[in-house]
Amino acid sequence: MKTTHAIVLTFTILAPYAISPELLAQEKSVRPGINKSFEKPDVTKFVERFEREGREVYDHREEIIAACDLKSGMIVADVGSGTGLFTRMIAPRVGERGRVYAVDIAKEFVQHVASICKEAGLTNVKGVVCKPDSVELPDDSIDLAFICDAYHHFEFPYKTMRSVHRVLRPGGHVVLVEFHREEGKSSDWILNHLRANQETFVNEIRLAGFEVVDEKGFLKTSYWMRFKKSPRKTNSGHTTDSLADVKKLLADKTAMLIDVREQGEWDAGHLVAAKLLPLSALRRESSDKLPAIVSEIIPRNKIIYCHCRSGGRVLAATPILERLGYDIRPLNVGFSALAAEGFETAK
Ligand SMILES: C[S@@+](CC[C@H](N)C(=O)[O-])C[C@H]1O[C@@H](n2cnc3c(N)ncnc32)[C@H](O)[C@@H]1O
């Protein structure tokens, strides 16, 4: 009890860079206003828009769904389900033993999909009104996240994809159908509407913890890609994320950095962006008390980069924190190297 208290106290005092709920709330949308038309949407109008000949994903809907390899009993989340075009196609294919979650930020769409599926006798569809930064499904609950024409609408793409990562069962997949965006080739509407091209989106999804499995070329103005969860680690166990990625994710508060060195080393110099979580404390604390102590310091919805002096101790800290359910990415560069790479040090 005494030890626990001492650790909590130490971290409270020595962690002046704790991220407050207020700060988290200020995290910025990558594309403010993109979902304006889905606030209180006129559902009839959107049915006409999404479920019409001439929309490429509508015309190729059978191929899009066939490529997903749906099996009876699978649990699928149609993320950004809109008017339910794909939810209604997925439901009979996964059968009574399976389930489709129609997940959308727009309550009106979710209610519409739930009601038309009920009328059609599709009893395995469940509507979920999600948050702009989370799909709001239980952990380890789905086999496939199907995301068609919706990723570019995600205002907090890393957080939404981290939530997808959390809910996807081992061996599960993400299928992404998204518009190509190519300067000089794409229409002005696409160039204005989409914030980035395929390479950028794929890189974002990779950083959220996935790797590409395959890509199919049956669409012209869009691409179809399948991803699976990826450990994103080198043979030694360090993260494959580049320091540029780390800086970017720290800057937009998708990630945080912890320093697993000891108190004396921290006092002699540390990074402004880091919080202290000494390996010795992780090892010392009993397994029943550790989760509560760690959760005071690191939030579960962020990527956690960790560093030590030279990349050794992070490998010992990683399994302890992974067992608690965190996405830990150990850096193979230590404090001095990070400082030399431009990570600000505390005065
Ligand atoms: C262009 S519609 C696509 C609908 C459907 N997937 C289709 O292809 O017909 C994009 C949908 O994504 C939803 N959306 C936007 N941001 C979202 C988020 N963060 N999580 C879940 N759905 C979201 C919108 O409300 C909208 O229904």
The mean pLDDT is 91
- Number of helices in the DSSP assignment: 16
Helix content: 25-40%
* Head-to-tail CA distance between termini: 34 Å
CATH superfamily name of the largest domain? Vaccinia Virus protein VP39
Instruction: Compute the number of structural domains.
Output: 2
What CATH calls the topology of the largest domain is Rossmann fold
Q: Strands across the major sheet, in which order?
A: 3-2-1-4-5-7-6
Q: Which CATH first-tier class of the largest domain would you pick?
A: Alpha Beta
The global form is elongated
How many strand segments? 11
In short:
By secondary structure, the chain is an alpha/beta fold.
Summary keywords:
4-stranded parallel sheet; 11 strands; binds S-adenosylmethionine; 347 residues; 7-stranded mixed sheet; Oxidized Rhodanese, domain 1; disordered N terminus; Rossmann fold; 2 domains; alpha/beta
Q: What does the model show?
A:
It is a single chain. By secondary structure, this protein is α/β, with parallel strands linked by helices. It folds into two domains: 113 residues, Rhodanese-like domain (Oxidized Rhodanese, domain 1); 194 residues, Vaccinia Virus protein VP39 (Rossmann fold). The protein is 38% helix and 19% strand. The protein is built from 16 helices and eleven strands. A seven-stranded mixed beta sheet has the order 3-2-1-4-5-7-6, sandwiched between helices. Strands 9-8-10-11 form a four-stranded parallel beta sheet, sandwiched between helices. β8, α12 and β9 form a beta-alpha-beta unit. The longest helix has 13 residues. It starts with a helix and ends in a 7-residue tail after the last helix. The N terminus is likely disordered.
